[in-house]
């Protein structure tokens, strides 16, 4: 979720954000299986082994994406305010072991569709 839930992302921002987050996942030897986003947040489905610390992965996803987005889209800086942070400090992570990947993908794909 963006800082203060401000709606800052366009379709182009989200396309680039997905590329950046895929690169970060590769660095962590994890797989970004699904990505979807709205104007003020993103949904990720990540396959990762137990050796990867979730907090380190999330911090890297947020930090790298914030830094690169600010470099590549300077106009986003107006939404960073004084903290120079695009993302809020919080996140939600859930374990979905055993659920079919097709159901999880469908859930994430439908997150930005109205009712």
TrEMBL record:
One of its GO terms (biological process) is DNA transposition. GO terms for molecular function: DNA binding; transposase activity. Residues 1-111 form the Transposase IS200-like domain. SMART domains: Y1_Tnp (SM01321). It holds the Pfam family Y1_Tnp. InterPro entries: Transposase_17 (IPR002686), Transposase_17_sf (IPR036515). NCBIfam families: transpos_IS200. This is Putative transposase. It comes from Nonomuraea maritima. The lineage of its organism: Bacteria, Bacillati, Actinomycetota, Actinomycetes, Streptosporangiales.
